[in-house]
Write a structure and sequence with these properties.
The complex is a heterodimer of chains A (306) and B (670). Chain A is an all-alpha fold and 306 residues long. Helix content of chain A is 71%, strand content 1%. The chains are: A mainly alpha (306), B mainly alpha (670).
Chain lengths: 306, 670
Amino acid sequence: MMMRVLSILLILLTSFFFTGIIVRTKSIFSGRKGPGIMQPMKDIFRSLRKGSVYSETTSFIFQLAPTIYMATLLMAILFIPFGNQKGVLSFNGDFVLFAYLLALGKFFMVIASLDTGSSFEGMGASREALYSMLVEPAFFILMGSFALLTGYTSFAGIFGALHFGSYISYGLGILASFVFITIALIENSRMPVDDPKTHLELTMIHEVMILDNSGYDLGLVLYGTNLKFAMYGAIIANFFLTPGYEWYFSVPIYITVQVGFAVIVGTIESFSARFRMNHNPQFIFMFTSISLLIFLGILLGTGKIS
Amino acid sequence: MFVSIALPVLTFFFILVVALVKPERKGLAATTAVILNAAISSWAAIKVLAGNPFDGSFYGGIVFENIAVQLDGLSAWFILLTNFTAITAILYGAQYLQHHHSHPANLSLHYSSYLLNHFALLGLYFIQHSLAFLFLWEVMALSSFILVIFEHGRMENLKAGINYFIQSHISIVFLTLGFIWVYASTGSFEFSVIRDYCLSTGKEAGLLLFLVFFMGFGIKAGFVPFHTWLPHAHPAAPSHVSGMMSGVLIKAGIYGILRMLLFMPENHLVMGYFILIISVITGVYGVLLATIQHNIKKLLAYHSIENIGIIGIGIGIGTLGNGLHNPFLTFAGYAGALLHTLNHSLFKSLLFFTAGTVNTVTHTLTIDRMGGLIKKMPHTAVLFLVAALAICGLPPFNGFISEFLIYSGLFNAIGSGQSASIMILAVIGLALIGGLALMCFTKAFGIIFLGTNRAENQPVIREAGPAMLFPKYLIVILIVAIGLLPQLFIGFLQNPVGLFTNIPVSPEVTNLTGLMNKISLSATALILLTFLLLLIRKAVSRKFAPVYGPTWGCGYQTESPKLQYTASSFVNPYARLIKPWVGMSHRNEAIADIIPRPLHTETHFFDKIESHLVDWPVRNLKAFLGKFKFLQNGSVQFYVLYGVVFIAISIAIPLIINAIQYLSQMIKQL
């Protein structure tokens, strides 16, 4: 049980400095001094300790949504395993529940932004709903591929059975990491799909959805982004953990992968520009096809084609 | 035996009662009848689910002769889910129809048809005799046609009703064809001979027979491309009828397919692939079109098609499981399909009922003219929200459980490497359906209930009365119960699903009970966690008095409901994406003068399959038949002439044939 909780603790820990590393990477690349690694977290804490201003148009949905969003995220990380250690909750098909929990949170964030009656927030809600709809199949294809490869249908089973040492599984791990990084970028509305630092509401996706959130609720939503990053980072790290070894071996690898992931995100944001809005679906289709390629590759590789 | 006499007697007695009592009492009489019928049939069904199958027959007169009656787990399951929705629909409908008391005749007709419809549905699940089955099927089709055209004063309702009427008779043609085929080969109307026939004849003939039945039942269920009646009939019907039709009537088609599958001992693989692929297409196509609908009832109708697709995916993988000898797949598939049948009947009827309530206060079905209803109608809003979350398959509600079962089956098959490439297709389909449903229902809920009202003439909005809310809360209780305690319902499914598996399978064998326990645990944990976080939020924000202000307008100062995002703008990026797959008609007025007048632009989406498969042939047929219009010229002399010509031909043809035979014999002799 102790080891099962380790995964959650590590994800929570990572979430505290994840966006900090992204910001730091960006500042280094652009030659600025930049804020400290803990600065984003300090901002969140400041928000959490403030009162809220609510729009008169909104209803209880608006006040409920950030809490439900946070609850779904906290539930979702319970499913993430750590190496050969199962998550707190683990059963066959748990990744289906994982995906649907995230969808539940998204549902509430989308309707909360429609609750304000603002055209800008409606715009963001529309885009968020569209892109998350397009992302959904990629995740399931990927999990299907690993189910096909390993014969297991749970997070823990799949990651426990991915035996390392063969080049194929490393290759697959890297390809899958690529897809997961892209999923994380889209789910968190980062570059190149969305620019969190843009100053024009017309071009935003996620940021424009939460224009009216303030105080504690805003803090929750902002922390949600960090948590989501750490969660996807943990999934990616699981591809590279070495089951069978003790924690003193796994934890450093885990932290390295998480930091590497954050640095990659920072690098992408430093060197790429945001896509035009209508190019985003094409981008998402591209990596959906990559995940299909992974599936077909495994299908051919394992000879289970029938 | 008692049931098969009690049901018709009760039904016909209460039809008389409904016709005779005062208009205000008609609703009560109908409700009593439905509850009595439901109680009797449910009692029989529950006994069956508890393990006492019911078998019998009664003499049906010179036409039907002996009618076999049988109740097994499958019938029992459908009877129970039909009864629940029939009761909630009539409870709601009796309130909904209150302002129609000035038309007692119409009301009597409506309630009698409702009773007949309920009776016919129940009968269908009892009867094991093809002729009697067809008879009841026809009763069901006719009575539901009358239910649909309740507001027949409006032309489009009548048109939609006739469209439904014709399509349900095409369904009957296929069913009749299938049953006659079996009768011609075996000489018996009993259902059980279908199995013997399939065993005695070749595999190909069995498959063809299945396809004929699938067409017949598929029209009723609304599988693509036989779905075109649904989006017309549902908006035309009054809301409780839409809920009843979408909830249980189209499920009669699902029942038929399942019943026929029970009699098909062979071809499991081919049938499974066929059902799976057509269901994935149905599901994706249904939700693809649902998302761009702005008429709330039409939107819900397309979602019924989507959900039929999901049920079909379950049936497909269940059948494949039989073919692949994978008991887990069979159980998960059929259990998922049956549970989703129940689930869909719950949340879809709830959605239609709430849509009906919304319609009565806003007097429109176009969601772009709604908004902000949550403030005046909090109950209706929450009810709609629960149903919307459930239909999107989100935890902790019932839709998730059945979709999870189907996903489990699919991933299990992928994991064991059985037809993985087809299974992943179904997974992609389900994932897309989930994502699109989320988009569609955030749109529907957000535009109808949130923000501020977009209508030009602000309607008077008030919450529905407790009598109208009561049946809806009944449904919500069941939705939440299935979501939180799925292990219980999996247990109930053991009996019906057991009929489909060649080897005895229980949830324990397939480890599904344990799985459901964990899902139940996760769902409960999610709710507790949410409450905990809400408590923390309350504790933290107690220090501050909430401040209220206008919505942040990004610098724009003049607020107006017109500035809000509409349903059309919400789905605009999506609509542009799917333009190649759906039909879109776009009408733009050109700018004419130097000082342009106000311009109008119109965009309509239409169903491409419908326009190619129904509208185009009908148009051409009309054009072709129009060429013979000159025959019907209205003068009696010509009609007499046609008669004479007909008689002359019918006398002449045998003579000519005789002459030809005579000649050919002569030539042979030569």
